[in-house]
Amino acid sequence: MRCWQKKQKYNNLSRKGQHSLSFQKTYQLTNSSPFDMKVRDLTITEHTSVDEMIKQMFYSGGFTAKKIAVGVNIVENMIRDSKCFRFLSFPACIVATGTRGIIKEFAKRKWFDAIITTCGTLDHDIARSYRDYQHGDFYMDDAELHRKGINRLGNVLVPNRSYGEIIEEKMTKFLNQIHSEGKEELSTYELCWELGKRVRNKESILYWCWKNNITMIIPGITDGAVGYQIWQYSQMHPLKIDVLKDEKSLSDLIWNKQRLGGLIIGGGISKHHVIWWSQFRNGMDYTVYITTAEEYDGSLSGARTREAISWGKIKETAKHITIEGDATAYLPVMFAALAERLKR
Question: Is 24 helix (H, G, I), strand (E, B) or coil?
Answer without folding.
Answer: helix
